[in-house]
Amino acid sequence: MKIATFNVNGVNGRLAVLLRWLEEARPDVVCLQELKAPQEKFPEEAIRKAGYGAVWLGQKSWNGVAILARGRVPVETRRGLPGEPEDAHSRYIEAAVNGVLVGCLYLPNGNPAPGPKFDYKLRWFERLTAHAAELLASRAPVALVGDFNVMPTDLDVYKPERWTDDALFRPEVREAFRRLVDQGWTDAVRALHPGERIYTFWDYFRNAWGRDAGLRIDHLLLSPALAGRLVAAGVDREARGWEHASDHAPTWIELAAEDAAPPRRGRARKGDG
User: Fold this and answer.
1) Which residue segments constitute the domains of the chain, with CATH numbers given?
2) Where is the site Transition state stabilizer (predicted)?
């Protein structure tokens, strides 16, 4: 089972990129972020023709998350995180696909920090952590997948010293991520690439892609019931270089069947290994 996360940075404006990647990579489950489209403008028909069912939570101009499943429609179990009913941002959706519960999330950016946006980010992180604890308590096979807008360690950012005051790298945010993972989650990409610089995002500015000045902010966290099935993980970097690409590259994992978990292998780029 191949599960991927892809911040598409506008699902309609970059639909051709998404459809090309779906055809080439053929993931079983995809979590999308930054749809930047209201609920009624999600390109359901085009995605259905590509072979995927979908559930989504849209929002005009901003945010928006979706879960796609190849050959089936995900069974939606939740939209929105508990804990702050007045929060109207479309940042979380959850669904069951082929025996796995998938939480697709788009954590707030939080800049400028300090400030109200940073405070909202920390509150959202607290709500996610509380909900994640409940998911773990269920002992179900769960994957928390998406754009977390955090670089957990110095290894996840091209020049750490330039990011010390950024909301994606401030100590409070990295500590929040650590607390979440320490509940018992496995950071899948890092588990298979413990000492490797792997990036999932390259800014459009200052030739970041050309200089490989990237960040690892897209993560796939696995509950104990899934972590033992992890066999591969990587980033489809080449998609970042396509015409009219998102500033993120698709990040993915492969899980063995429940009754078979072969040795793990890491793959940083599609086609390596």
Assistant:
1) 2-255 (3.60.10.10)
2) 149
Q: Which of 52, 92, 106, 199 is catalytic?
A: 106
Beta bridge partners of 75: 96
pLDDT in tens, 97-151: 999 999 999 999 999 999 999 999 999 999 999 999 999 999 999 999 999 999 9
pLDDT in tens, 4-14: 999 999 999 99
248 is catalytic: yes
- d(CA 81, CA 96) in angstroms, rounded, equals 16
Neighbours of 109 (CB within 10 A): 17
Q: Which of 119, 120, 123, 57 is nearest to 91 (CA)?
A: 57
Any binding-site annotation on 248? yes
Confidence of residue 247 (pLDDT cuts 50, 70, 90): very high
34 is in an annotated binding site: yes
Is 76 annotated as contributing to ligand binding? Answer: no
Q: What value does the mean pLDDT of the chain take?
A: 95
**Catalytic residue from among 89, 131, 219, 248:** 248
Catalytic member of 28, 131, 147, 193: 147
Residue 49: CB atoms within 10 Å:
10
CA 82 to chain centre: 19
